[in-house]
Structure formats: C-alpha cells, structure tokens
Fold each of these.
Amino acid sequence: MADNTTADKKKLFIKTYGCQMNVYDSERMAEAMGGAGYETTDTPDDADMILLNTCHIREKAAEKVYSELGRFKGLKADNPDLKIGVAGCVAQAEGKEIMRRQPLVDLVVGPQAYHRLPEMEAKTQQGVKALDTDFPEEDKFEKLKGRSKAKRAPTAFLTVQEGCDKFCAFCVVPYTRGAEVSRPVDRVLTEARDLVERGVREITLLGQNVNAYHGAHNSGDMTLAGLIWELNKVDGLERIRFTTSHPNDMMDDLIEAHGSCDKLMPYLHLPVQSGSNKILKRMNRNHDRESYIKLIERIRAARPDILLSGDFIVGFPEETEQDFQDTMDLIEEVKYGQAFSFKYSTRPGTPAAERPLVDDAEASERLYRLQALIAQQQRAIQDSMVGRNVNVLFEKPGRLEGQMVGKSEYLHAVHVADANAKIGEIKRVRIVESERNSLGGVLVSD
Ligand code: 5AD
Ligand code: SF4
C-alpha cells in the first residue's frame, strides 16, 4: 500500500548552497511541498520539480546559479512538465533578472516567501511563471509548519532569528534577508519539543545575528539567553548550540549562561573579521580589537574550556601588510579551535564595493598564511584533547565494523570502536588519538 502512495507522489529535488540556514529552509520547503503532493528525491534526473536554494555570500554566486540552471536544459527537453525554481538569497537579490535571463525558470522565491511555495507551484502547473521576493509580515515558519512526525537525526537546526541590521560594509545579508526579525518564544519551544519527540537530542539555534534574538514572550521580549534557559527545561533535549553571533550582541546574561547552563555546549562562533582597528572601522563593525579581546576574556572567565571559532576576511579594501599582521596577532592572542576565512570579494550594492581592491596575489598570499596559522591552532587544540574524557553524542555508524561516530561537546568529530551505542545516545569517551579531522576514543566504563 505504501508503494501506491509513493507512486502517486511527485518528486522534488532540492539542491542547497551556503549556510546552515539554507539547509534548514530547504527542509521546511520540502515539508511544505509534502503537503502539495511532493516527496524529495536525491537526483534531478527523475524530478518533477527542481529547486536551487542559493547563497549570495560567496563570489560569482549568481553566475554559478546560471551555469547550474543551464545544465537542466536536457532534463526539461525530456520532460516539459518539469518545473524549475530558484530560491534563496540569489533569488532575492536578482529575481526578475533570473526570470529574464533564463527562460527555463518557472518560479523564483525569496527567503521570506517560502510559505507561499505551494500556491506558486500550483500557478506554474497552469503554465504561469511565479515570482515572489516580498518581505511579508506573517511568520513564514508558522505557515510552513510540517505535519510530519517522521523520525529525525539526533542533531537539528532551528531558525529563531533572521535578517540583520548591522550592515557590515562587505555583506549582502541585510539586503537579501532583510531587517532583523525574531520568532516568538512559544513557537520556538513548540518546534523544539516536536524535534525532540522525533528523536533530536541536540538543537543548534540559527540566525544571521542570533545573539540579537529578542523573541516575543508573555513576560515581554526574551533574550537569547532567556530562550536557552527555557530550552534547558525541555526533557529529552540534551544539547543546545547557537550560531552566528556578533560581538556587540554578546550580552552579560548570555556569557553567564555559558558558565551555568548545563545543556549549553562549550563552543562559540564569534566572528571578528579583522584584527586591525582601521579595517574594523571601515568594515562598519562597530567594535575594535581591544573590545573583542576583552569580550573573549570574559567569556573564558565564565567557561574556561570553551572552544572558540571565528570568521576572517583578508584583503579587505585598503588592508595593508600591517593591518593583516594585526589580524595574525589577534589570532595568536585568542587561539581558535576552528575558523572560516575568506579572501574579500566584491558584492555589488554594498558600501565596500566602491573601494579600491588589494592586489589579488597579495590577498591570496595573506589568506594562505592566515589559514596556516589557524590550522596550527586547530591542530594544537585538537591534540590537547588526547587523554581527556568527553561526552559523545553518536550520530551514525563509522566506516569500520562496530564503529560509531559522533560529536563531543566541543564539536570535534569522535569515532569509537565497539561503542555499543545507538544513534542519539550520549556516552562518556576517553580520547586516545588525534587524527587529521577527527579524534579517536574509547568508552569510559563507569
Ligand atoms: N567577501 C568575503 N567574505 C565575506 N563574508 C561575507 N561577505 C563577504 C565578502 N564580501 C564572510 C564573512 C562572514 C561569512 C559568513 O562570510 O566572514 O562572517
Ligand atoms: Fe553580514 Fe554578519 Fe555583518 Fe550582519 S553581522 S552584516 S550578517 S557579516
């Protein structure tokens, strides 16, 4: 019988680019389209609908979308009923242009309009192209709410905040995702409880500027720390994380939570972008290196073992070798367990786009040096785990028979032979080896 229902369903292929928020959005779109008779497929070949969930943050993002779309030409020729859609930040930034330049596209939907996807799809079935890049008032996630009770993996993302009001001079997010909006506390808690019922043990709260969260609650707006304390009470939820944060929104209650909230994991992604005060000013970051370092000291005072992660941009317009050295010094001082680093690249429409570029070879060379330093720090921190006991949340079987793989509190991947653990279980593990991108451990018998 199940086969019959499956056979009746149309197939949806979603390709997701970019950040975790897009991963989360793709899941929600898949659930919404489930209500419109679609099930997901892993390949575009047999799809009735293809959706590209795009990202605008990396270089030549739009060009990559056009070349990807071009590849679907043959599929559309074989199956004229195939619908092709573009979602995400590229859709938001250049929706009309996409429709004009690539006639294969039936549908363009911006990140704030995903809840309208089923009606847009219905329109395309009538042969009408559909475009929606509005920023509507309603809560799209409330409208997107899936009814599925299907079992989930033990870790999940949950978007609690979207958009950004910070306007860093290099960044498109305030334009593509719009102004900062927080979801109400009760809706987040309901979704979290639903995830836990479906097998989730660890939730990562997502937001472009997540620590600016200020969700509506019957006792007035609640901060991210307040929300975390509410989540801490949810039975069956074992771990809480959040990303990405801005240094200026790292409030006292959130720092304190890192010291006292038992489910909040000792890991913090806190981008600084540059260690030069001149560049930070030009980036419109509204903080300086001293305030960032002081903040790190306060966070470490609350939670000494916290693993810090960051984002860096090298070769920002007018960055001199000395400015770059300031960034390297800051990295030396902070010591990161993990970091993402990028060569600056121009985003049309942002303030920095008007400014003179650093020589490209010079910027590449700086990126190389910075990544070497980060790799060394990452390695040192990973190696220092050997001999320590950590708690591992097991996520999947490993490559070897009997082996299981999971994550420590610090987000290190850990594999354990004879783990004798089920997916979703947390066990105490002693780290015995540090490999390239993971740690090896043995169960600690209690
Ligand atoms: N050039 C290079 N890196 C960028 N980022 C954002 N915009 C740009 C850009 N124009 C990086 C920042 C941000 C991360 C998500 O991407 O480091 O924190
Ligand atoms: Fe972009 Fe982050 Fe700056 Fe907001 S805080 S503008 S999302 S880099």
Note: The mean pLDDT is 93.
Amino acid sequence: MTQHIQNKTVLQNGVNMPWLGLGVFQVADNEELIHAVKSAIAHGYRSIDTAAIYENERGVGQAVAEAMIENKLTRGDLFITSKVWNADLGYEETLAAFEVSLKKLGLAYLDLYLIHWPVNGKYKEAWRAMETLYQQGRIRAIGVSNFQIHHLEDLIADAAVKPMVNQVEMHPYLSQQELRSFCKEQGIQIEAWAPLMQGGLLDQPVLQEIAAKYGKSVAQTILRWDLQHGIVTIPKSTKEQRIIENASLFDFRLSAEDMARIDSLNRDQRVGPDPDNFDF
Ligand code: NDP
C-alpha cells in the first residue's frame, strides 16, 4: 500500500516509478514553471511529467538541475517523463525528437518516454525508435499515451518490447474500467492525466461529502482514490500550497464503500480529445 510520497510502483522491466508526480501541461516556460517544479521537489515529489508539445522542457530541465543541488539529490533520485509529439512520429523523426527533448531538458537520459497520441499508421514506426532508444539505454522505460485497447493490441502484435505505461485521461467521471483491466492483464501501468478533471470535479457533491468525512479536500480524495486503485497520478498545479495539498495523501485511507461510491460516479465523460477521433 502506498504510504509515502516517494513510494513507487515497479514497472514490467523492474524500473521503479513514483506513484505521484507533478504535471506541467499549459504552464509557460517561465519563472512560474521553475518555481512550481522546484517547490514540488522540495516538498518531496520525485517525478515530473512534461512533453515536447508543452514547450517547457527547457524550464523543467533548469528547475530539476537547480532542485538537485538545493535538495542534495542525484539524477537517480528523480523520474523525468517526456513525450514525442504527433508530428514527429516516424522512425528517424522520433529518434531526432528524442535528442531535441533531451537537450532541452539538459539530461543524459529519460526515465520514461511516451508516444503522446496514437496517430493511425504512424505509431508503430515511432515505437521501433522507442525500442531502439530503450535498448541503447537512453530511456529507462518506454510507453504510450491515450492508447485504447485496440491500439495496444495492434502495437503489441508487432512489438519487441511491450509498453510499460499507458498515460490516459482518468478521473471519477471517466474511470476507464475496461482499459484498466486490459492493462493489468498485460502488465502495463496506468497513469492518470487530468486526475482532477482539470478542476471540473471540485464541486461534485458526492466527492465533497466523502472528502468532508475524512477532513480532506476533494482533490486529495480523488488522488487517494487513484493510489488505492494502483494508478499513477500526476496532478498539475503551479501554486505551492496546492502542490503540497496534492501530495498530502498518505495519512488517510478511503473505505471500500467510499471507493465504490466514487467508482459509481463514472459517466465516460472526457475533458480532453477522444483517442479514436482526434485531428492533430
Ligand atoms: P489536472 O486534472 O491535474 O488539473 C489541473 C487544474 O486543477 C489546474 O487548473 C490547477 O490549477 C487545478 N488544481 C490543481 N490542484 C488543485 C487543488 N488542490 N485544488 C484546486 N484546484 C487545483 O489537469 P491536467 O490536464 O493538468 O493533467 C495533469 C497532467 O497530466 C498535466 O499537467 C500533464 O502533465 C498531463 N497531461 C497529459 C496529457 C496527455 O495527452 N498525455 C493530456 C493532458 C494532461 P492551479 O495550477 O492554478 O493550481
């Protein structure tokens, strides 16, 4: 059971990945970003989730470098994720995109690199590049994002290395039950993006009632629900108080009954694009 902010899940290849990380989607590459990432690390976060398309890898890299010195950490204490964008899906293109990301981040290797979206006809070639980089030791774990079951089946059919992680939209209104069962059978760790539904669930009455019972916030209740389901979660905030709040998840436990009540809120409702019908 997850008892501490730095507890980790063990991926299929034996690599340890923190259950909790900081997301930095829609955070411009400026002082606010650097402050957020440094605050998170100072308050015990060890995992940061960025992507080429967020255009903030440079600032993430700067913040990570400064935080390592200030907190006396080594590179091996941290878990850094980035993602290859749709325009760069192809064997050579993905190899090149990886080098650009790594350079912006100022890192010698990535802990996790993901195919950001399952662009039809393109993700298999990109996956071959990910496998090459993985086999060369440039990435500790490789995975995908926004893959549905049929995308995973298609990819795995030709893959030498199975994806270790699938990062998908997941929150109480989109609980992804079928995909979670499939990934569990396949040994693929699910990671929730928009765990707080981008702020859209904070007024949800059932969540408010459950949160009040434990003396916790709705955000903490949702994130605890993720952890108790064995889901890696990466809430985004640029506010230091919320960064602390979102990591204060280890002093309470939701009962089986409350877990089931949250499960029952599912509406298959997305805030982001549908992976079977996106156009970018
Ligand atoms: P989240 O569900 O994490 O919600 C973020 C929003 O909630 C922000 O507006 C934030 O505001 C607010 N918030 C955070 N904590 C609290 C709190 N305790 N109380 C009240 N409000 C709060 O949405 P994201 O879309 O950012 O998802 C998380 C991460 O997942 C991203 O940052 C990114 O790293 C990843 N992601 C991946 C995608 C993919 O396709 N693979 C797509 C989208 C996201 P504020 O900052 O002002 O605190």
Note: The longest strand covers residues 139-145.
Amino acid sequence: MPLDIIVGTQWGDEGKGRIVDLLAAEADAVARYSGGDNAGHTVTVGDQIFKLHLIPSGVVHPHAQAFIGNGVVINPATLLSEIEQIQQAGIEVHPQRLFISYAAHLITAGHLALDRAQEAARGKAKIGTTLRGIGPAYTDKVARRGLRLELMRDEKRFVAALREHFETVNQLLQRLYQEEALDVEPLITEYVGYAQAIKPYIADVSALIAEALAGGKRVLAEGAQGTLLDLDHGTYPFVTSSYPTAPGALLGLGLGAACVDRVIGVTKAFQTRVGAGPFPTEVFDQTANHLRGSGANPWDEFGTTTGRPRRVGWLDLVLLRYAIRVNGISELALTKLDILSGFNEIKLCVAYQADDHSYQIPPFGPTELDSFKPVYQVLAGWKEEIRSCRRWEDLPLNARQYIRTIEEACQVPIKRISVGPERKDVIVLA
Ligand code: GDP
Ligand code: IMO
Ligand code: MG
C-alpha cells in the first residue's frame, strides 16, 4: 500500500517541507506524525513563502487532505493561529480537510513554563530547546498524565483534567524551580475556548488513513526534526522528545509496517544544527559564513521557528549511513546543492578516526561523537551558479562528482537534487 515516509537524515531543517511540497503534487494526503510546533517547514511557491509549524506542508496543494497524527503534540493557540494565517494566504483549512487525532496530546501554558524553567535550571548544560513546551508535554504523555485531544470533546472532563494539570505544574514551578505559579482559572477558561474551536477537527486519523490507503490513495508521512534529534536514535541527550525516524511515522499515525512503499531521506548538501550537542564536521570563519549566509536570503541558515543562527559544517557521510540504516531509507533527496557553488574545495566526511580505528558508521550510534576525528575526502568545487539546472547534464562536472561520491558511499540512490528553494528548482533523476 502506498505510504511514503519523508524523514530528515540530519539535525532537522534539511528541507523536508520543500521536498514534501514536490511529492504532495502526486499524493492524495499528507500527514504529520511527530513533534509539534518546534518544527518549521518552509515551502516557496513563486513569491509566496509558507512557514508551517504544525499543519502538514502538503496543505499548500489544494487537492491534498491533511492529517495530524497521535504522535504529534499540539499547542492549541499556535494551531488556531496557524490555521488562520493559512486561510488568510488563500488556502482552505476546515474540518473536511484537516483531521487531527483524538490521541494527540496538548501542549499547555504549563508545559511552556516548565520548558523555560528546565532550560534555565540546566545552566551551561542546556539543550537549547525551542522553548515550545515539547519535552514537558511528552513527559506528561509518558507519565500517563497527559491531556489528549479527545478530552476537548467533553467539557466537564476537560476542565477537571486541566485543573489537575495546572495544579501539578504549579507544584513543580514553585517547589522545584522557585518560579511563580500560573493563574489557573483564567487558563482553564482560555483552554475551554480552544476546545470549542478545535473540536470539529478531532478525528480517528489512524482509521481514516488506513481507509485511504486501502482505497489506493497515496499518503505522504511528513517527518519533522531529523534522525539525529530522535529520542532513541539521536545524539542523546541533545535530542527532541519524539521519534522523527521512519518507524515513528507508523507509531505516530497508527499504521502497520506493511503499508510502507518508499522511505525518502532528505539530506542537505552540508550539515546544520540548532541548539547544543556534538557536531563533528562543524566549521567556523569564512567557510561557515558561506554555508550559513548573512541572513539576507530567506533560505539562509537561521531557524524558521526561533530565528537562531544555525551551526554549520561539511556533510557527514558517517552519520548519513547511520541514518539510512535506522530509517530503512530507500532513496535520498539532496537539498541546497546551490549553496556549495563558489568553493574551491568541498570536504566530505567519509569516516571517523579514533586511536588506530577507522569507522564507516559510528560504533555506538551517534553517542560520544566528540571522541572521533572526522576523516575528510577533499573534492574540487565549482564556481557556476546552478539554480537554473534542470537536468543531470546541466550540472557542472564537479557537482556531479560530489553527488556520485555521496551515492557510492551510501549505496542509496539520490533521486531528487534541489538547487533552489522554489518548486521548479529541482532535478529529478530516473
Ligand atoms: P525543514 O524544517 O526540513 O522543512 O527545513 P526548513 O524549511 O526549516 O529549512 C530549509 C530552508 O532551505 C528553507 O528556507 C527552504 O526554503 C530552503 N531550501 C530548501 N531547499 C533548498 C535549496 O535547494 N536551495 C536553497 N537555496 N534553499 C532551499
Ligand atoms: P524541523 O522540523 C531543527 C532542536 C532544538 C533543540 C532540540 C530540542 O524544522 O526540522 P525541543 O524544542 O524539540 O525540545 O528542542 O531539538 N529542534 C530542531 N532543530 N529543526 C527542527 O525542526 C527542530 N525541532 C527541534 O533546536 O536542539
Ligand atoms: Mg525547519
């Protein structure tokens, strides 16, 4: 059955939104399966730039249905303002088009306050979260005291659950973090208001997608974050609190493995990371300025959600091979190749060195990465602007060599090469 899963292979911001937008043209539905509004997915159509945080990027295509699965955590305030913004941009969002799982969990003002308090308490060891309340909301889910969307359908139960939740949060804020308590009653009124607006969108997403797939419809599962931010498979503890990897799509939508067709890994032509944590191929100075950009272009490496400058570095094939393994990636989409134009030399990390050993894949997953030295293969760069390239033959020889080197090192075909942010800026390979 035709479920395609789109996953980020790095630390997020690989250009997943851009690739989802390409594939959504041929899909019937797009579904978000993990994370929350810590995500920021950019879709550029002509002079319109859409930045989506919770609603699947495929919504930009008028024919596509949109789903938000049980694996997602939802801040109702940001959901409603995103719906409004998208509607204002001329895109239809209504309960016959957007369906949100009853089993998705809510992010509240309490989770936001706890995220801030926990980050402050970590001091130098802070994770650099997006402060969107993600960790605390998933903590409540795992602790079996979370607020699922289904509660919004029953006001009495919802009010009782909210009161208990905010009181627990206040205990933590005051006793553990010496922070001010939240004013509970106005918050309850606020969240009951959100429930009225969100109730019509609540649905059995697992059942609806299963039905669509059984009817031969093509569904795209849109990953948020990236493999190296996965709670289990990422650079723990510098990770998010969900499962962005491909199996997370099945868990987070309520589907079985037999429905998967392709697993498409999105890889930036270099490496970026926002927030703290190891980054073996990180670069600084002039090279970093080139990769990051000044901030003048919409695609420069500054966070879509937080505006923070992203850390940048050379593409790390050791971590890419690892991502291919843990996701079961069947094909890759390479983005932002255009940004590499203008370098005399381009480096690719092909192995890690520690003592006398060389590693093709990190021996204990992406942990203790600081103990390895990246081994680089240095390739000749190219000067040409490549944004207008539409066929493989249009690319400079050295750019083709760069792509072939990645493919050979990973043994997975690169089927799409993105050479600019717009829909048309792509080379599709057979
Ligand atoms: P996501 O979180 O994985 O969806 O990625 P983001 O949207 O946060 O960041 C990717 C940025 O790069 C966005 O501004 C995209 O518009 C932009 N982008 C995507 N592909 C390309 C590309 O091939 N070239 C350029 N120049 N920009 C791109
Ligand atoms: P998209 O979907 C990049 C990072 C944060 C932080 C860590 C934990 O746009 O690729 P959290 O708020 O989730 O508890 O923060 O994860 N992070 C992202 N980095 N892109 C994202 O999403 C991210 N979502 C979370 O910067 O390091
Ligand atoms: Mg992003």
Note: The longest helix spans residues 155-176.
